[in-house]
Structure formats: structure tokens, C-alpha cells
Amino acid sequence: MTNNDKAIKILNKLNSKCGTDLIYPKSIDLSAALLEGRVDYIFAYSSVAEQFGFFFINLPDRINLSNPTYAHEYSGVTVTVAGKEGGVSLVKGTPIEFAVAIPRNSTNKEAANIFIEILTSPEGEKILGNCGLISC
């Protein structure tokens, strides 16, 4: 049995146990389910796992959607997501990236600029890293 066959077998086993009653709209709901023992494991951002003190395993960059270098490989995977009104959407894999911006109608652009300068400084990157967020 190849590694790919093993992975598909594991995925199918996990999939068979995943009903719509185990899909949560927000990571906080998912985390609460784990804390309360309603589920045995969750897939979440490492930053969420660190905030809640969960034991977690870091998946390799080739599959965890964290590294823009692998954007082409991520795009080879699609997921079908059920919509709220009965339709379905096909979602293509892309790197997960976070952004920061100052709203046009901000009442304190000077403070916002200072915040972004701090956030993108080496010290800010260190703080983000301690929270499980990877800077680019």
C-alpha cells in the first residue's frame, strides 16, 4: 500500500465519522466542543491551539496552507462546501494569509499607522510568532 493509499484510507475513515452536526461555524465553537469533551480532536489554526493550551501537531507546509511557495500545490485541492440556502460551492486551496489595513473612515489614522509600524517591526513579528502567527 502506497503512502497516498494510506492517506486516502485514513481520510475516508475520518470522513465516515464526520456528520454535519460536527461542523461548527466559528473556531471558538469548535474549541469549546473540544474543551467540553464533545469531540476528541479538531482541525484549527496553531494560534487557536496555543491560545487554548491545546496539544497540537504542526502539519507540514506542503499541506497546511501556510506557505505561499506551495500555492500551486494547494490549488490542486478543492473542497465542496454546502451553502446556507441549499447550494454548494467549490473552494480551491490557497495559502492562508492575514492582512492589516486602516479603514478610510478611521478617526485616528496616526495611531493606526503607529500600530501597523509596531506590528510589522521585528518585535511585532516576535509577538505574532509567540501567538502562532507566521509573518511573511
Q: Would you spell out the secondary-structure blueprint of this structure?
A:
Blueprint: H1 3-16, H2 27-35, H3 46-52, H4 61-64, H5 71-74, E1 78-82, E2 88-92, H6 109-119, H7 122-130
Antiparallel strand pairs: 1-2
Descriptive notes:
The chain is mainly alpha-helical and 136 residues long. It has 3 domains: 1-58, no CATH class; 61-96, no CATH class; 98-136, no CATH class. The chain has 7 helices and 2 strands. It has helices at 3-16, 27-35, 46-52, 61-64, 71-74, 109-119, 122-130; strands at residues 78-82, 88-92. Strands 1-2 form a two-stranded antiparallel sheet. The chain is globular and about 55 Å long. The model has no long low-confidence stretch (mean pLDDT 85).
Total discrete domains:
3
Q: Alpha-carbon distance between the termini? A: 38 Å
User: Order of strands across the biggest sheet?
Assistant: 1-2
Give the rounded overall mean pLDDT.
85
What's the Cα radius of gyration? 19 Å
User: How would you spell out the order of helices and strands?
Assistant: HHHHHEEHH
Structural class: mainly alpha
Instruction: Tell me how many strands there are.
Output: 2
Low-confidence stretches: none
The geometry reads as globular
Strand content: 5-15%
Helix content: 40-55%
Largest sheet: 2 strands, antiparallel
Helix count, DSSP H or I runs of 4 or more residues:
7
